[in-house]
Amino acid sequence: MSRIHLQVKINRSAFNLDVDLQLPGQGISAIFGPSGSGKTTLLRAVAGLEKNQEGRIQIGANIWQDTQRGIYLPTWQRSLGYVFQESSLLPHLSVTDNLNFGLKRALKTMGSDPSNAAKALHASIELLGIGSLLKRMPNELSGGERQRVAIARAIAMQPQLLLMDEPLASLDAARRQEIFPWLSKLRDELKMPMLYVTHSAEEVTRLADHLVVLDNGQVKTQGPVNEVLTQVVNPVVVGEDAGALIAGCIGAVDVQWHLSRVDFEGGCVWMRDAALQVGKAVRIRILARDVSLATSEPQNTSIQNQLRGSIQSITPDAHPSQVMVVLKCGAEEVLARVTKRAIDELALQVGMTVWAQVKSVALVA
């Protein structure tokens, strides 16, 4: 699989961005961090909208910038799609005309084959489910619909890289929930890599495959999203949202009790039935606050989900009364937030085998 190399260095009087990243050549790489950490500046540099003082930007075998070799492609020569916070649709053109405008750009600047470009446009319409919107004007669309059209326009150009700069930031909660399934479908069915800027932990857990955390222009940490989210030293997500992200599949459905079983390497858990078929790939989130520990297999308990694992680490938490325990359950890690008194009374130590009682499981994707 091809890789993405982003070496970007921009020095300003009030801000320095200095990153050197090797990212996967497919899936969503989320760029996460607080406002002012350099997320959008990095995306603009990749697009050629911020000229680096030093740097190298390589997408697979294609070099867009290499300052040591004097290579710098302008934005229009970079095979990319860019989706902004606002949809950026031309208000005087219908959805069809907005899409065709993007198609004409692809034909003019990227030398795309007209028949292939037309097929790509049709595929993007199908993928984003906007066939019923083609005759409408932008002001007749909801915020979520406008973003779906903007994304379809971007991917219709068959770019080597899709850039998304907080595409859900301008949407209310209902519209965000509306567009999440389409972004998941985009991730799962497209082969092109995506860089996705966000400061939302929910978007990271639902969409990201790889996670890069920026802080003040520097890479704080990066790696597969499930590994980064379970870090307890300099954690990415703190407080009530700390927890583990686990990939699995629907192993069984209990029709009588309206439950679905999620199987993963290391165990299984039951959750509310979400009308998903057996075999369907899913992501679940287990929050550290919803996990308790026992030194022997629990009996006669209302908590249905129990995972056997070994203690990997015991780390002080934000409040002095608590600690964060990392458990290895098969190939997955699970977090448990418990009191120091519980650790002492149960004599818990690294390496011990314990049972995690999981009180709640959330389906995130």
The H/E string reads EEEHEEEEHHHEHEHEEHEEEEEEEEHEE
Oligomer: single chain
Strand content: 35-45%
Low-confidence stretches: none
What is the CATH superfamily classification of the largest domain?
P-loop containing nucleotide triphosphate hydrolases
| Top CATH class of the largest domain | Alpha Beta
**Would you give the CATH topology of the largest domain?**
Rossmann fold
Q: What is the count of helical runs?
A: 8
Task: Give an overview of the whole structure.
A hairpin with a 4-residue loop joins strand 5 and strand 6. The protein contains 8 helices and 21 strands. Helix 2 (95-109) packs antiparallel against helix 3, helix 2 (95-109) runs parallel beside helix 4 (143-156) and helix 4 (143-156) packs parallel to helix 5 (173-189). The chain has 2 domains: 3-238, Rossmann fold (3-Layer(aba) Sandwich), CATH 3.40.50.300; 241-363, OB fold (Dihydrolipoamide Acetyltransferase, E2P) (Beta Barrel). The protein has 365 residues and is α+β, with helices and mostly antiparallel strands.
